[in-house]
Fold each of these.
Amino acid sequence: RDVVDAPTHRAIPTAPAVALRLPTDMDYMAFADASYQGAPVRVCRTGYTGERGYELLPTWDAAPGLWQALLDAAAPLGGLACGLGARDTLRTEAGLPLYGQDLSAEITPLQAGASFAVGWRKPAFWGREALLAEREQGPVRRMRGLRATGRGVPRPHMTVRGRDGAVLGETTSGTFSPTLRTGIALSLLDPVASPGDTVEIDVRGRGLPCEVVKPPFVESHVR
């Protein structure tokens, strides 16, 4: 309990962790227990940005000192602290769904493109029959990426229309991609919408032309 009771985890790149002599040579999704100035810290090769990095789980008392040490180690490399807004932009570029927006009790794993996370071979789990029926019939909507081809930034819960003006669905996440220099969005659309199609997002009454794409928008570097 003491190890994971810090105020929050911190996603960090490799160099500052090396400078603090924390273990970094591990596979993706692995972790190692270490110490910093005598206090235990768990180093995890995890994260939700699509980038190679680490999450640190220190004790509550040691967290402020470790955080400051990371900032000091990153400063000579031009590193700065960033918040959840930056994390949200990166995870959207990586096509990673956020619970409450792209995943929810109303958005099934099949609709969200996360069926790989379902234990289909398990004999019983909550919702198994409903998911099996949906898999057999096919989901009524699917998660698609939208890459803007015009000027504008999509946001969640904006209507998506086809060329004929018919409503295809709505965006679930949306932002400006600093990497691609254009607007991007995750969306739940009618299965008729396929990668390569042209659609429009209703951005406050103005149609924003977009191409339907298969996420991720930016290649993942987690490994």
Amino acid sequence: MKKILLFALFGIIVHLQATEVGTGNTYKPFTYVDEKGQAAGFDVELLKILQNYDEKLEFHFRPVPFNALFAGLDSNKFDMLAHQIAKTKEREEKYIFSDTPYFNVILNIITAADTKIDSIKGLQNKSFGAVVGSNQALKIEEYAKKNPDLKIKIVYFKNYGTQLLALANHQIDAILDNPIVALDYAQSAGVEIKITDLTLQKTSVYFVFNKKDEDLKNRVSKALQRAREDGKLKNLSLKYFNKDYT
């Protein structure tokens, strides 16, 4: 649901519809709530940059747990989503995505610091943690289905924090995730984890919209392309990660 913002300009009241953006509250450094209680992170900062390319783009950020994002989009509480979301067949049937991705994620198998898994064969009979509905959950579900001989067990969690603590406490054997996120959260939580050299997939992520919001999708996509062309998208990645993942 778009929020109406009112501005007085030369004595004239200007109505600007702010786009309600559903984003994350704990997925640091991409989407989280900072110490001031404000939405922050790579995805949020990127959208703030995109506002500068189109006077009709004005974003209002609504940080929520990941499992509330799509419900919010379905109920029109949000106009779009920004939370490192990958395409899937099911999602493409229901939603539309920005014309191009804004980030490319490499997913590694991550374990507790003292767990030894150094080969695909070592995944046999192991338990994987996954946040319900997340990109990582979809990827490990897909991998387990394609490799039934490994007998991988998937344990689901409502949020990222409890999943990582379960990993550190050996309640699960591994997770599949972006090393950037895992290391940042582990450091904040004071737990030790290990990033293995095992990667399952490179995943591209997009902004997500309801099918009825084609105009909004087009505006965001055009602004994203301009940010890519003038180097601001690349520079933002370098600022956060010292590497261009875009």
Amino acid sequence: MLALVCCTVSAQDIILKKNADEIQAKVLKVTETEIEYKKWENLDGPIYTIPANEIFIIKYQNGSKDIISANSARTRSDIAGNFPKYQGEIAAAYGLGVGRVSEFINTDRILFETVHGIRINPYLFTGLGLGFDYFYESIDMEDYYGNAIGSYDGAGVLSSFINLKGYYPATKKLAVYFSLDLGAAFGVAGWAEGTEFHTSVGPGINWGNRKGSPRGDFSIRFQHMGTGTNAILFRIGFGF
């Protein structure tokens, strides 16, 4: 009788959960997100499923074992996230002036901007942004004969734009992306006047937990703003 009991016990699969509970079962299917099984005491009964992230190890009746790794234990919601959802960011940048105007005056700038929109899925974002570029170099204006006609303590430009980002999630907490801004720039202070086409484009990296916590962000972009007032931007900020 003892030998018969031992043989019966050894013929079942054992699912050991992370909370130390054991399930005596017949395992039917193992995927990255869940395990399907039947209860050993009722093999003719229904099929049960359990999330893989609740399982520590599966011991099979033939003596083999499956240790469920952290990667395979991610649920579908961990992988896909809850999309679409709101996404915002606040950033500052330093711009090195390039282009025709920068050959005559210093067009380096400090930029502050914010972007708000919808993260459509893990790979695509679209939103609206508002930025302010401060050109901190003072300029003395002269006429054709070299006579002073005015002096400006820098300039200010307000920009409004549509932002598009394409993401590649390298890991659960790290993604690289490519960003594109399209909009208009308005001279609002100093020597900056009029309205010009505004665009900014370049790669970036985003890191941190996607589920509500602030995320770090760094990118290098080429900014076009009017005739000859272009810049290479070194931009850092955080998203939420």
